[in-house]
Amino acid sequence: MEDIYVQAIQEIEDTGKLLLMTRQLLCAKQKERNKLALFSMEKILSEWPDSIYPKNKVAEILTYMKNHEQEEWNHSQIMNDLLEDIQNVLKTHEHFMLGYLYQAFAYMIQNEQQDIQKNNNDEDLEYEELDTIYCACMIYKYEDESADENARKQREADFWIWYLETLAQIQGTTLLRDIHFQPKTEVVDFSLISTVEQLVKAISYEFDYLSHEVKDDMITIQVFNLKNGAYCPTCHQFSNRVKFDYGGIMKLGKIKGISIRLYIKNNVYFCDNKACEEESFMCQSKVDYKERMANYKQMVKTLGNKRVLEILQIK
Ligand SMILES: [Zn+2]
User: Fold this and answer.
1) Average pLDDT score over residue span 262-272
2) Centroid of ligand 1 to alpha carbon of 281 (angstroms)
3) CA 206–ligand 1 middle distance (angstroms)
């Protein structure tokens, strides 16, 4: 077994992830990458939630891609129509999984180039989020809405284990041992939530509840993200000296016709480290948009619609 495989196995076991850099070393041939990209999209299909976008339409795109040469994808009206349809749904029904689905297909089409090893066009890939395999991994991680944080981490690792095993098969090599990953986060029991304060903490432990109001068919919950200071992303020194604050809306979705949204306040902090080039910085949350959304969905699944509205004092 090649060294790069040994390194990749270690990476998955240590972090539950597989870096773009490692994937590029593992798989330099565009043809192999394209094959893996198709397989990975097929992998996500079985659990794809119909509520976000019709599963049969996703299947239709994949079937088309499988049955036609890559060069044809880019010039085909059918493919354009299929992708445009996803884009249109995205305009009114913004959902990060659908965004990933679109991006996954878009990158596959863009990568119709031939198999030229040294003109490795992935080298320019600045954002991992553009890569089909990465998008597929994120979809796989979040597809099961009842999965808690640990289960999601496990799913992410399982995806990369599957990736490595499939790649080994394509490349005609065998992995010499099984890969094991065990997530170690202490998960909160969502069934114990009984107050709005606990409810927002369950979405992100970095949130502090401020207030909430019910108006017509809309509940707005105000929270503060990282209100007690944060670490400067450049020099890593802690600061709680506030320069100014700003806020933004995050839509959580509807329950029984009632829209629920967060108004998230954030501080911009001064960096007081004289040696640091930053005068001030915005906070970088550990719990990103996807995790907040997934936590919320899992909570609603655990508590049920009725109980969530009760906690929000709507009878
Ligand atoms: Zn700094």
Assistant:
1) 97
2) 8
3) 21
Alpha carbon of 279 to ligand 1 centroid (Å): 7
In angstroms, what is the span from residue 283 Cα to ligand 1's centroid?
A: 12
Q: What is the pLDDT of residues 2-57, one digit of tens each?
A: 789 999 999 999 999 999 999 999 998 888 998 999 999 999 999 999 989 999 99
CA pair distance 102, 66, nearest whole angstrom:
17
Q: Which residues pair with 251 in a beta bridge?
A: 261
In this predicted structure, the answer to whether residue 142 has a pLDDT above a threshold of 80 is: yes
In this prediction, residue 157 carries a pLDDT of 97
Q: Calculate how far, in angstroms, residue 69's C-alpha sits from the geometric centre of ligand 1.
A: 51
* Entry pTM: 0.87
Which residues make up the environment of ion ligand 1, defined by Cβ < 5 Å? 232, 234-235, 271, 273, 276, 278
Rounded to whole angstroms, the Cα distance separating 101 from 98 reads: 5
Domain extent listing, the chain = 3-170, 190-311
| Cα-to-centroid distance, 288 and ligand 1 (Å) | 21
Asked whether the beta carbons of 175 and 168 are under 8 A apart, the reply is yes
According to the model, what pLDDT value does residue 122 have? 52
Name which of 7, 294, 285, 40 is nearest 150 in CA terms.
294
* DSSP character at residue 233: T
